[in-house]
Amino acid sequence: MILRKLGVLGFCAGMLLFQVYTGLVETWDGDWYWPFFDYPMYSSAHHPGDIYRYAELRSIPCDPNEPPEVLDDRDVRLTRFRLYAVMDRASGLAAASVDETAVRDARRFLSRLLRARSDDLCAAELQIRAYHLGEDGYASTSATDSTVVRWTLEPGFAPADRHLGDTR
Amino acid sequence: MTGRATRPRLPEALDDHFFEPMSLRRLAIFRIVVVAAQLLLFLPELDYQMWLASIDDSLFMPRAALRVLMSPFGWAVRPDAAFLQMVWGAAVVSGVAAVAGLYSRISLFVFAAANTLLIGHTYAYEEIHHTESLIVIALWILAFSRAGEALSLDALGRRRKAVRGPGRAEDAGGEVRSDFARWPLRLMQWMMVLAYLSAAVSKLKHGGLDWFNGHTLAYFLVQDGVRKGAMGIAVADQIELLVVLSIFAFLFEATFAAAVLVPRSAWMYVAWGLGLHLGIYVLQEAPFFQWMVLYACFVDELLRYGPGVRVRAWLARRTSAVGPAAGVGSPPSEVADGIGRSGLH
Hints:
The complex is a heterodimer of chains A (168) and B (345).
Chain A lengths: L1 H23 L26 E11 L7 E3 L8 H12 L8 H18 L3 E12 L11 E9 L6 H4 L6
Antiparallel strand pairs in A: 1-2, 1-3, 3-4
Helix pairs in contact in A: 2-3
Chain B lengths: L11 H8 L2 E2 H19 L3 H9 L9 H7 L10 H20 L3 H19 L10 H11 L9 H9 L6 E3 L5 E3 L4 H25 L7 H14 L10 H17 L2 H4 L4 H19 L4 H6 L4 H7 L1 H16 L10 H6 L7
Antiparallel strand pairs in B: 1-3, 2-3
């Protein structure tokens, strides 16, 4: 029985040490060892004056009589967090480290997704709403402003670019 | 090492902590609660798996767990729709068998592997969440444990054959106790402690004391209110309240180890945690329901020291004061088991 107990303790120690390593020692790619990983969500600090920006993706049809369509992650065949990240880059409002090339690449990527969805689209639009945190936090009466970033969809994509929307 | 020829003994505290004999029924309760919840409430949706299988190859970035599970077919192989359907079916069948305790060891292994594969597949497309990780670990721990040896069809069959394994004994109430019933619950308790500690340390490391300024929580309430329509945005201007809630949440995360080290406090931490996660869900729509289910790993502490025990003991005393009869008035076995014990055990 002592050997069996030692085996169990070894198993427990291994599991716990791995969780300590992945949860408390951040020296590597955070989610590679899932389901062992860290829990840094909601851990950054914010202050009065901080702004939360929310982007919404819209497709603009070529026919001016057609209204723009608001698109979500499923519509463009991306997962939600992936879409948030791409929209963040495409808006040009993300971290300072995002340069013009990254913005252009992100917009080109979104253009591809929209083209794969329909040929009758001429432009893409990001509507970005900014929510300002004041001294008293945020209330529905607080200042909220809106910015629109629009770019035209380049006509004629190579066939290889079209497969994003295909169903297997 | 003393150099004596005697068998080496584990340090007593560690031995007590992980191997103090416990009814296998309590471990079985954990098995039934966790597996049934994962099967009925948290099993990844098949439609979503099919949709994921249809999106572009370039977006597929599997983590280690999915690569290992798919490794018989090659490293970083992407599961296709037919394979995912088969895995999902295996998860359902093995889940039902694991709850019923039929071929428990095998069914628990298959259930753990199938869930790891399906959730790992979801996470291969940059959609990483923190809600599923601990319950996946719990499923693997159960697969390596004796969770199927009580409250199960396997146990029913074994009882007919009257087979007993090493380290098992039957108590006066007919329950099978085992040295190996407690460690899975202990391990799960410590995994939860480490997860909460990771969240607490992250807040101090990335946010520092400013994390408690109320504006931090206000920002996240706005974020989740705008993104998900969560109702917390309505209180994003109550800075004093948000300061209190921030401290309340951090204290819970930072001190959760007390629930394990001081067993009498476990029920209070479980109640605190349930309230905290429900509050987070209402205000931020962050659904940590799996973690609430995992509090079942405190089943022994709850049965020994929970408020229900005190109520039953009080009722038993009243009954015996009114007029003791044969067998009436003696406290339930959990009460007798629990009173007078405390500290690390």
